[in-house]
Amino acid sequence: LITFLFNALKEKTCEDMIFVPVFIGYDQVLEETAYLQEITGGQKEPENISQILRARRYLKKRHGKIYINFHTPFSMREFLQDNNANLDAISNKDQNALCRNLGWRIINAIDQVSVITPHALVASAALNNASVRFTSEELMQIVQTYLIFLNSQQVKLAETLMIDPVRACEAALDNYVQRKFLELPAGERNLSADMAQYLLPVNQRLQLEYYKNNCVAHFVPPAFTAAAILAKDAFQFSSVDLHDCYRYLQEFFKYEFAFDLNSNSERVVRKSIKSFIDDAILIPHPTLPDTYQITSAGFRKLKLFARFLLTYLESYWVVLQYYKQTPRSEAGDKDRMKKIHAMGRSMLKQHEL
């Protein structure tokens, strides 16, 4: 789409274009089932009149809030000037690079005005918890860790999270239980709210993953930083030791996440470390400059950040396992995807994922 627009400007169809990055988020998405079907390899169904008529029953239910935010608009002409691009003499290679950079700038701008919802935080806490069973108090401790980080980065939060985060997340938790994304087993229903243990069924993880991904962009930098710290396998480290690992992860995941081109890895690592210090995850070394130590509680919290990457790494692991066993020429694209999904389900049943 950006290439089409770029060519229109190049051919002088118009003098300039103004881009307005817009964030639109939901507590609950109406097309949830359709999205999940497409994510797991199903075909997108074309819209038709009968779907509109059937949609009436969904519109009678409450689906929570819709969040809309606008970033500051910016001009294509100004973007070209900032990048010293000459439209009349630009090569195809440079044009493609410029279009990619513009796409990343738009995505980064949308991320900057995105709103973190209670549903996104509860889904993240449930999925990143090391255990499939947890109490609401354990869940809220994880949410609190994430909120401390988000507040340190001045990320926009839903109004309900700012007013009463505990109540907002409890409401999201109840909503997930009603929709059977999380379960309260029969033996737990008579216990008090702080004692009952919730269960995360394996077949419901994907639904929660969708909502977790609504906030994942904000957690990629601390996840990379936490993973780099954990990879050192030591309770004391220097921030310089993290840069190579951080850059490696950024390169590895360049097709998954859109990175801010204006922030270098050293600056992002420094910001993440500062927020980890604010939450007592790390403490500065008393005498050695630029050296930090992991606290006992901090080790567990670092894992909570690093686990944002787990499902992505596992998906690569499934594909690598497939290619390890299957010659590339053996199947067409559609057949290959079916086999990869089947292998993933098999590995999940065998607790390899």
Fraction of residues in H or I helices: 55-70%
Order of neighbouring strands in the sheet with most strands: 7-9-8
The gross shape turns out to be globular
Q: How many β-strand stretches?
A: 9
Order of helical and strand elements: HEEHHHEEHHHEHHHEHHEHHEEHHH
CA radius of gyration is 23 Å
Q: Strand-residue fraction?
A: 5-15%
Q: Briefly note the structural class of the backbone.
A: mainly alpha
> First CA to last CA: what distance?
37 Å
The number of helical runs is: 17
Low-pLDDT residue spans: none
User: What is the overall pLDDT average?
Assistant: 89
Query: How would you characterize the largest beta sheet?
Result: 3 strands, antiparallel
Description:
The protein is mainly alpha-helical. The chain has 17 helices and 9 strands. It has helices at residues 2-10, 32-39, 49-54, 56-59, 76-82, 92-112, 118-128, 136-152, 159-163, 165-178, 205-212, 216-232, 243-252, 265-278, 296-306, 310-325, 333-349, and strands at residues 18-19, 22-26, 66-70, 74-75, 133-135, 197-199, 236-238, 282-284, 291-294. Helix 7 (118-128) crosses helix 8. The longest helix has 21 residues, at 92-112. The radius of gyration is 23 Å and the shape is globular.
